[in-house]
Write a structure and sequence with these properties.
single chain; 47% helix; alpha/beta; Rossmann fold
């Protein structure tokens, strides 16, 4: 794993791809890989999220172009829905970014959500850490696009960009129960269509109703036409402005702690699940007793935890 990381840092794309596969597959080599990662933390982590059909992939592709114009190396983790047949990623987002496929300064990886709720793959954060370690300047995480529950991205990135668009129903209403509350920058894409100004007004009204203090970040609203690049320089500027505030206010450090906490929680749960699966006899026996009403679920849980503590 050490040699693999060294090769990836030296620019070996195949080695980088293999390292990310180790993360996605959760093989026995994963602990060795993660323990050998240098803790850089210098890359700008951007999350692009929003309801389906608003142009997240097109916006991501346009952002790649803007950052490449600044000679920055860009990596994209496009979390796609899982195939019901193979469990792999459907690759829709990656197909839409083919214009950057031959650029050596761009790395695009599709990752299957594998049924993970919250819009991200459970391996996303570890993959972003690898991309940071091998020297990418900007890492863009594009989420599945599942709607209101897609909020895990806030704990995985430094800046959350929420993309909305007119003409897709009441986009603000559809999103407000979840993802609207986590955005640092709002993007009203397809701004050349009727209704864009109405979406902007709704967002401004929503921000105005917020109870943000003077020390908090006030989300910015940017209108874009991602297919033509209109508004993209302003979007990059808004992201940079939020990043500067996040560093100076300590918000970036706090999110880093939350990322570590989330990773630790998932690691503990994965370990517990693995230990439970190793003792299928006890699990099957307790499941049968719960199903028959012989014991309660709570008592079964306590029994499992006692067994794990004694093992």
């Amino acid at each position: 794993m050490h040699s693999l990381l060294e090769a990836a840092v030296d620019g070996d794309v195949r080695a980088l791809g293999k390292a990310l596969s180790v993360i996605e597959d959760g093989t026995s080599e994963l602990p060795e890989l993660l323990s050998g990662l240098p803790d850089s933390g210098s890359a700008l982590l951007i999350g692009v999220t929003g309801p389906p059909g608003v142009g997240k992939s097109t916006t991501t592709g346009a952002l790649i172009s803007e950052y490449r114009n600044q000679s920055l190396r860009v990596a994209v983790l496009a979390v796609d829905p899982s195939s019901p047949v193979t469990g792999g990623a459907l690759l829709g987002d990656r197909i839409r970014m083919q214009e950057h496929a031959l650029d050596e300064g761009v790395f695009i990886r599709s990752m299957s959500s594998r049924g993970q709720l919250g819009g991200l793959s459970s391996a996303t954060q570890a993959a972003a850490k690898v991309l940071d370690a091998v020297g990418f300047d900007v890492i863009i995480v594009e989420t599945v696009g599942v709607g209101q529950s897609e909020v895990d991205v806030v704990n995985a990135v430094d800046t959350v960009v929420l993309v909305l668009a007119p003409g897709a129903g009441d986009g603000v209403q559809a999103a407000k129960a979840g993802i609207l509350e986590i955005a640092d920058v709002y993007v009203v894409n397809k701004a050349d269509r009727d209704g864009a100004e109405g979406v902007v007004r709704e967002l401004r009204s929503m921000i105005g109703l917020g109870s943000a203090s003077s020390s908090s970040w006030t989300p910015e609203i940017v209108t874009t036409v991602a297919t033509t690049g209109q508004g993209l320089p302003e979007l990059v500027q808004a992201i940079a402005k939020h990043h500067e505030w996040a560093v100076s206010s300590g918000d970036r450090a706090l999110r880093s702690v939350e990322r570590a906490k989330l990773n630790l929680r998932r690691a503990v749960l994965d370990s517990l699940t693995e230990q439970m699966n190793e003792n299928r006899t006890t699990l099957d026996s307790l499941s049968a007793q719960v199903a028959s009403g012989a014991i309660s679920t709570e008592l079964a849980v306590n029994q499992i935890l006692r067994d794990l503590n004694n093992s």
